[in-house]
Amino acid sequence: MFPRPIAQRSRNARILYQVALPISLILWLLPLLGVALTSIRPSSDLAAGNYFGVPSHIAFSNYYDVFANSPIAQYILNSFKVTIPTVIGAVALACMTGFALGVYKFRGNLIIFFLFVAGNFVPFQILMVPVRDLTLSLGVYNTTLGLALFHIAFQTGFCTLFMRNFIRALPRELIEAARVEGVAEWRIFWFIVLPLMRPAIAALSVLVFTFIWNDYFWATVLTTGASTQPVTAGLYSLNGQWVAAWHLVSAGSIIAALPPVAMFFLMQKHFIAGLTLGAVK
Amino acid sequence: MSITPSSQPSQSWWRRNQQALTPWLFLAPGMFMFAVYVVWPIGESFRISFYDWDGLGAKEYIGTANYTELWGDRNFVTSLKNNVIWLVLYMLAVPAGLMIALFLNQTVFGIRLYKSLFFFPFVISQVVVGLMFTWFYAPNFGLLYKLTEWLTGSGIAILADPDLVTYGVIAAGLWPQIAYCMILYLTGLNNVSADQIEAARLDGAKGIRMLWYVILPQLRPATFIAVVVTVIGALRSFDLISIMTNGGPFGSSRVLSYYMYEQALSEYGYRMGYGAAIAVVLFAIMMVFISGFIWKMVRDEKGGY
């Protein structure tokens, strides 16, 4: 283990480390703590210039105000309407492409694989003009469906990279044995490979959920109104309305951040396994 | 291709060819979506960049006029310069992430919770990160303003200063990016060979020398991924600029992707062709990196067969 375990060091070093940990964490999360504190601060405190002191009382009413006086509930619903179909669509497509690229040897395999990988690296803003135009001509501009369709296609790149590498690491003997038995190829996929892919499916679902929930660029490009905008784009327009009403902006931010945060803490193992794929060989 | 299992000859035809055809059937839906929404638009961006087009009316072919105009456009040069600053400074996330990972790579009580909380900024949307830092930088009452006022006598409103604004936005972007690099290195450190460390310790290696000669070579895969995601993150920067500054003040914090968005879609006018030309430049910059990454990955892949 590197660095040397703290348990092998002097008593003073151990104490120093135990003190340094919480202090560094507080410094690291200072912007977050500030916003969390502001979200429960009554507006009278802000008016009186009490930005960082102890709140005069805890005002959960800020959260109530946000829900009552803004379409944030609708924004959140829209976010789910974009995110959930994207997770299902992209993961399903990638199970299939990953199976094809991970199991079969055929001419063009590597080229197709690296096409997916390269597409996934592209700064997606360069797709903006044609994708917006395409969405308009398909008649799904300013709908959650139009947004989800693009996300499914784009995330398929990343998901294919992930799935293909995962499937390549599976024991090939299983597939070979099934072939000798004369099992049809699609049955090999459905009954042998797919059950083994469960951890990868879980990891990808959590990751894609977070990526899509947090997407802001495509939300602003492909949707416009409160009836279709996801919460990230919604928060931006609310921020414009609530000029200097930091207690509301903060409460809104916390609400928008909650679903991916909950997802992360519930599925932490899968989340990190997904993100760090390839970081070890 | 006919896949009718009823007729005997085609059944056996399918039998004979199913190993060759199955991968293509499985690839078809994914490749179709990817071709329509990712591959084709890249080509289309190139094509549109040679036209004058407002997004609705007829396209007018104008050759390379958009590119000639870019050459003399001061806003474009500022955006390009800012993209370079983003790329260079964003790279700080890699060593910073490594340092935090080394700090946290211990086994004391509650360390797992500490690791997750340090990772926290990455899980939050960039929109929320942008709002947090806007508040942190806010003139008159923001923490940073107060701090600089206390230290130097006059507070600095970073987001209102054309010379500092880009650095302020990059600092906000580094926060989640460092967290990402940290988690990559933590996973990498977990898999460093204990034998080699022991052997190096017996040889008297420790501290920085140990890190440089023994640990870092083993962390190479983690470093590679960290560099890749950081480069991509820097070139994709858009959200924070839109949230924190709208490109301002006076357009001094724009990057290429934001300037393209402004030209093509915002109130500055619907100049799709000009926006597409900016996109092509951004793509060209990205290609330099992508080809490097892909070249390395292909080499690894060939070795793996």
Number of strands of chain A: 0
Q: Which H/E pattern describes the elements of chain A?
A: HHHHHHHHHHHHHHH
Oligomer, anyone? heterodimer
Residue ranges of chain A: pLDDT <50 for 5 or more in a row? none
Q: Which term fits the overall shape of chain A?
A: flat
The shape of chain B, in one word, is flat
Amino- and carboxy-terminal Cα gap of chain A: 17 Å
From the 3D structure, determine the CATH topology of the largest domain in chain A: MetI-like fold
Order of the strands making up the biggest sheet of chain B: 1-2
Radius of gyration of chain A: 24 Å
**CATH level-4 homologous superfamily of chain B:** MetI-like
Structural class of chain B: mainly alpha
What order do the SSEs of chain B take from the amino end to the carboxyl end, as H and E?
HEEHHHHHHHHHHHHH
Please state the second-level CATH architecture of the largest domain in chain A.
Answer: Orthogonal Bundle
Give helix % range of chain B: over 70%
User: How much is the average pLDDT of chain A?
Assistant: 89
Q: What fraction of residues of chain B sit in β-strands?
A: under 5%
Can you walk through the features of this model?
The complex is a heterodimer of chains A (281) and B (305). By secondary structure, chain A is mainly alpha-helical. Chain A has 15 helices and no strands. Helices cover 73% and strands 0% of the residues of chain A. In chain A, helix 11 (198-214) runs antiparallel to helix 14. The radius of gyration of chain A is 24 Å and the shape is flat. Chain B has 305 residues and is mainly α. Chain B has one domain (75-304): Orthogonal Bundle (MetI-like fold), CATH 1.10.3720.10. Chain B has a two-stranded antiparallel ribbon. In chain B, helix 6 (126-137) packs across helix 8. Chain B is flat and about 75 Å long. The interface between A and B is large, with 97 and 102 residues.
